[in-house]
Amino acid sequence: MSTNRVITYREALNEALKEEMRSNENVIIMGEDIGEYGGVFKVTDGLIEEFGSSRIIDTPISEAAFSGAGIGAAMTGLIPIIEIMWIDFSLVAIDQILNQAAKMTYMSGSQTKVPMVFRTQGGGGRGNAAQHSQSLETIYAHVPGIKVVMPSSPYDAKGLLKSAIRDEGPIMFIEHKMLYGSRGEVPEEEYTIPIGKANVVKEGTDVTIATISKGVEFSLQAADELTESGIHAEVIDMRSLTPLDTDTVIESVIKTNRLVVVHEAVKSYGWGAEVASIVQAEAFDELDAPIYRVGAEETPVPYNMTLEQEMLPQAKDIVSAVRKSLYLEEGSK
Amino acid sequence: MSKEVEFYTFIEDKWDWDDVTVERIWYKLNQIRAFEETSVHYYQEGAMGGSLHTSIGQEAIAVGVCRHLNNDDYMTMTYRGRGQALAKGADPYKIYAEMFGKADGYCKGKGGPMHIASKELGILGANGIVGAGIPIAVGGALTAKTKGTDQVAVTFFGDGATNQGVFHESLNLAAVLTLPVIFVIENNMYSEMTRIEDSVMIEHLAERGASYGMPAIVVDGNDVRAVSEVAKEAIERARNGEGPTLIEAKTYRLHGHMFGDEQSYRSKEEIEAKWEEEPIKRFKENCLDKGIVTEERLKEIKEEVYSEIEASAKKAIEAEEPALGEVFTDVY
Asked: Which of A275, A331, A169, A71 lies closest to B129 in space, CA to CA?
């Protein structure tokens, strides 16, 4: 049944939206410029032609109101997908996302579920500067009640988005702006990917690299480079931060005895520290070296693209962290 | 196109409520008053956590609006919203149980006084953030419109909430999408401890609704009859697909922002004068003037309400605590 069809991350997301909207008339999409325009990243391209303006709703620029309206709609029988154009703009709506969506089920004693998806995109790499390049996922992962999902490939983008739309609770679905044009195999047949299960993207024996989103691409580049010096890295795509599948990481660490955690979010207080803490507590005896973290520097994202590259983690930083964990390089932190 | 604010005047001669209606309204007004007074008593006894924000003096708005709602109409309100929950038909026992943190409470004792919700009554929830329930009600209205039902959504909030951005965003969104939602500002003259006149440079908050192109009406919020007329019209408009309305009901918060507020921002004389204008006293005078019911009958109903409320509270005090394992349920 499998085909070798190759499509982009953007097309994969678009397919997931279409398929779920066809199979469930309660699914609607709201956001800025998502109708005729098809979204600034064209993820909703062509949807208004098929589903009409009652289900593909262009909104005024008012993230708090349409996020809140999505919550109210989710509580009353629809399954809204709220497109927040840039994750940086989600901060305008953060009361609705974290004080409302994330808490409604708990505060109401499960009288109301909030089945909805906040679709947004984050990350840097294209000179969008400090207010259009952030990786804010840890903020959302820190508050109980909302799941945080971050696909790294077209295959995952489609399968995870379909699962997110079918989930009972609110989900922060964070795409990466540098991945929209990336290509990969996506079967034409129906499939979903369960939320909460990490994916071993590349098997290896010498070190485990746990990462997410665009970090997977960087980590695979680093792993390729390391292979040349005879180091075989295992690369794990966490796929979601909530739930966080540390079991898969620990299983890998039992084999490799070394761990490097890679994320594009600022390193300090990032989710890498959470993974490191859990792994050292659960598998201390398995570790042959300190756990290293690779993340963005503790600065806003600079506009100049050379500076931006310096601030954001790159494949070379991962190579360096792996070498430290193998005691091939001096290093700290 | 911007609209003009309408100032509603109740026409006494047109008042046609029969004794059954009057008794029902009287019952509801007193039920809320009794509930709130009894809450204060139990709060002082230490039966509740957190803060207690009563709606004493504002009962006419809840009752006047909610009498036109069906169970499947949606409603959001704020932490001062137990009166509205009662007006929409909530069980006083289950609210008290929630306030006392008991398993029998509407939210299993996990929401508390600020977060009363009842799915079966369309009460999407009271909110601890003053303007946050406004877009959520807009979402309920969106569901109604998308599914083609004749349900409406009502959201109650205070004057202070109209200074939050989400209020403005929500009004605009509802107007643009022509959604069946009624925005009810309970202008009780104080945003927590600050006079509304020190917080805005306009006299009537309803102007804010008019500026988004929706009908906006100022009404005497202490006259349950006037509120009822204005709400009826707005709800009918919404049910007919004619979009949102903003109602500014002018009232007065007779208690402090929360229990224990020393109210240094206003004089005793001001509060005493306002007790003369409070809605229950006024409704009683209206009824007796018109001779619809006797004073004895009103007294009888009032006594009945107070004893029912006391019984509900007593039962809730004795109800079971939630199991410890409840900490971990209902999260996702």
From this structure: A71
User: Looking at residues B272-286, what average pLDDT do you find?
Assistant: 98
Cβ pair B132, A95 in contact under 8 A: yes
Residue B317 pLDDT > 90? yes
Burial label for A230, CB within 10 Å (0-12, 13-18, 19+), is exposed
Q: What is the pTM of this model?
A: 0.97
A to B CB pairs, distance under 8 Å: 146
B9: Cβ contacts below 8 Å, ≥ 6 apart: B226
Q: What is the dihedral of CA B16, B22, B24, B26, to 10 degrees?
A: 140
Place of tokens 């100049």: A304
Can you tell me the ipTM of this complex? Answer: 0.96
Phi, psi for residue B265 in degrees, rounded to 5: -90, 0
Average pLDDT along chain B: 97
Kind and range of the H or E element at A104? helix A104-107
Flag whether pLDDT at A332 surpasses 80: no
Catalytic sites of A, residue numbers: 63, 132
List of chain A residues whose C-beta atoms are within 8 Å of the C-beta of residue B329: 110
Region A315-324: mean pLDDT is: 98
Contacts of residue A100 in chain B, CB cutoff 8 Å? Answer: 127, 129, 132, 136
Query: Within 10 Å of residue B265's Cβ, how many Cβ atoms?
Result: 15
